[in-house]
Amino acid sequence: MLARFAPSPTGRLHLGHAYAALFAWRAPGRTGTCLLRIEDIDPDRCRPDYEQGIYDDLAWLGLTWPTPVRRQSQHMQDYRAALTRLTEMGVTYPCFCSRQDVARAATAHGPEGAIYPGTCRTLDAATRADRIARGDAHSIRLDVARGAAITGPLFWDERDEGRIAVDPAIGGDPVIARRDVPTSYHLSVTVDDHLQQITLVPRGRDLFLATHVQRLLQALLGFAAPLYAHHALVLDTDGQKLSKRDHATALADLRAEGWSVADVKKRIGWQDD
Ligand code: GLU
């Protein structure tokens, strides 16, 4: 099996990433491989020193990966091509709403915050064309209802749970191309998993809901579905999810304080087999 670990260089890796990385490297089994992919589509938040930190921390954990590493920022044309195909299928629309507009208009909230209520989905073609011609900033969203009407019912296989039915509308119409970048997290992950021929996606439970959208995108684009294995998250001592903002658990700091890899594994409850 071919798996991947796909961190974003927007901060330093912490104990939660150590668990995620060890899980990803073990997931494809002894005869499989885990690729490393750098998800750096966000020019404002990604930094070269964070990327270097990823390589240093993973090497410290004893992990190795095939090179060259795919860095998303170098493959914008692949995402653009997928976006064009989706647009030609009639399942995308421009959205002129800011984050605040969405927050204000939302009537439903999901685990990831305000669910986009579809404000721009019904704009007529002339208004869209006028606003684009005027240079109004806009993202591109996926019309999940239209997409699902094309694909019909979908499922994904979750390694330890079996078949999971896709609920395409679970988080509203997602952004597939941002205002500032001609792709989004969902689109670039879906395209890369396909182009890299990934057969197993090991990742944290916090991305479980993202799989509904990514499975729909795969089906629309005619891509094969990998197997998924979402793992439980490492919690801090208060039972909260660890985050990149929580500097106390940055691997580089722990290393500098003298923690060994064995100390890290003990803290995250990791057992080598
Ligand atoms: N780049 C994403 C992150 O750092 C993970 C993407 C994925 O595993 O699908 O949260």
Automatic annotation (TrEMBL):
Pfam families assigned to the protein according to its UniProt record, in alphabetical order: tRNA-synt_1c
UniProt keywords, alphabetically: Aminoacyl-tRNA synthetase, ATP-binding, Ligase, Metal-binding, Nucleotide-binding, Protein biosynthesis, Zinc
Protein name, per record: tRNA glutamyl-Q(34) synthetase GluQRS
GO BP term, pick one: glutamyl-tRNA aminoacylation
Classification via Gene3D superfamilies: HUPs
One GO MF term attached to the UniProt entry: ATP binding
Family: Belongs to the class-I aminoacyl-tRNA synthetase family.
InterPro entries xrefs: aa-tRNA-synth_I_CS, Glu/Gln-tRNA-synth, Glu/Gln-tRNA-synth_Ib_cat-dom, GluQ/Sye, Rossmann-like_a/b/a_fold
One Gene Ontology cellular component: cytosol
Lipid metabolism recorded as keyword: no
The species this protein was found in: Roseiterribacter gracilis
Domain Glutamyl/glutaminyl-tRNA synthetase class Ib catalytic: 3-259
